[in-house]
Amino acid sequence: MAGVIRLLIVDDDELVRAGLSMMLDGAAGIVVVGEAADGDQVPDAIAAHAPDVVLLDLRMPRVDGLTALSRLRGRPRPPEVIVLTTFDSDENVLRALRLGASGFLLKDSPPASIVEAVQRVAGGDPMLSPGITRRLIDRVSAGAGAREKARAALDTLTERERDVALAVARGQTNAEIAAELFMGVPTVKGHVTQVMLKLGVTNRTQVALLVNEAG
């Protein structure tokens, strides 16, 4: 199944799972390999289906999405995660991004947006609409200690890595960064990897949050 994006859908609403599965299975190289009805089923589903991407509901009755996400990100080589929410004002969305989610979707997002999100996240790019991303990041309230810590982390970067980190924080893709900074895409990918290693984060969204905390 080389080139195929393996997708796991986690939602306690059977109709939502069925609708997403019907819409996404077979679309643009996506294969829905499994479903789960609650957060406590995620570990077994990951072990059984080895998905590349997980669509994860935040609100579930037994184990909520945040707890499931935290446990999932602690696994070796975890899949990418897109959280699902009903309201973009949900405070838990920001917490999910801090825990390592690569993006989020509203449940009433157009089918094309959901397909694009799965494709982008599978390719290593976050999927966050610019307007909502700006609102979420603006809500980060970093105290003086957190701000200094974030700035100290950024100071470990080379000048080029810092340029890449700032571009990532603006939501630019690798191709856009490459064009802006006159680098090849593989070089950008290498810089992004180094930035995440030095900053101690696991994805691009966390890079953006840390850059914002640094002011």
Detail the topology: elements first, then pairings.
Blueprint: E1 5-10, H1 14-24, E2 30-36, H2 42-49, E3 53-57, H3 65-73, E4 80-85, H4 91-99, E5 103-106, H5 111-122, H6 130-138, H7 144-154, H8 159-169, H9 174-181, H10 185-199, H11 204-213
Parallel strand pairs: 1-2, 1-3, 3-4, 4-5
Helix pairs in contact: 3-4, 8-10, 8-11, 9-10
Question: Could you name the key traits of this structure?
Answer:
single chain, 215 residues, alpha/beta, 13% strand, globular
Plain-language structure description:
The protein is built from 11 helices and 5 strands. By secondary structure, the chain is of the alpha/beta class. A 5-stranded parallel β-sheet has the order 2-1-3-4-5, with helices on both faces. It is globular and about 50 Å long. The relative contact order is 0.11.
Average pLDDT score:
84
- What order do the SSEs take from the amino end to the carboxyl end, as H and E? EHEHEHEHEHHHHHHH
Overall shape: globular
Q: Which blocks of ≥5 consecutive residues have pLDDT under 50?
A: none
Q: What's the total count of β strands?
A: 5
* Strand proportion: 5-15%
Distance between the termini: 44 Å
Query: What is the SS-derived class?
Result: alpha/beta
- Strand order across the largest sheet: 2-1-3-4-5
**Rounded Rg:** 17 Å
- The count of helical stretches stands at 11
